[in-house]
Amino acid sequence: MMSFEMNDRKKIGLGLTGFGVFFSFLGMILMFDKGLLAMGNILFVSGVSLTIGLKSTMQFFMKRQNYKGTISFGAGFFFVVIGWPILGMMLETYGFFVLFSGFWPTLAVFAQKIPVLGWIIQQPYIRSFFDKYRGKRVPV
């Protein structure tokens, strides 16, 4: 049975993941600063590893259907580190969407429960967009 309590390791992992996203965003805003982007990538990956556990992280990235996303995310990280941040971030963005495409329906359900955002998402045009992709993995 899985444990959903929030222990200190998960809190630290969520904090590192948040800082990783923040530093990556800041690196893109500041003209693709490779130092901030590399730091954001390291913090993001270490935060995900701490949040869900090392074994679960390895299983997630090594699934057969996630190979394409894992390889492009890793190649993007490599290109950021060696000094080609624009190409690296393009590859990482593609890898991120491939890896986490299965989570979009869950994110949509969560977003519908947020007070103001939920009302916006419930509008017919936007809801039809979410319903079109509900329960499907986006092919890439």
TrEMBL record:
Cellular component annotations (GO), alphabetically ordered: cytosol; Golgi membrane
Presence of keyword Cell cycle: no
InterPro entries in the record: Got1, Vesicle_transpt_Got1/SFT2
Residue intervals passing through the bilayer: 12-30, 36-54, 66-87, 93-111
Location of the protein in the cell: Golgi apparatus membrane
Family in the record: Belongs to the GOT1 family.
Name recorded for this polypeptide: Vesicle transport protein
Organism: Eutrema salsugineum (Saltwater cress)
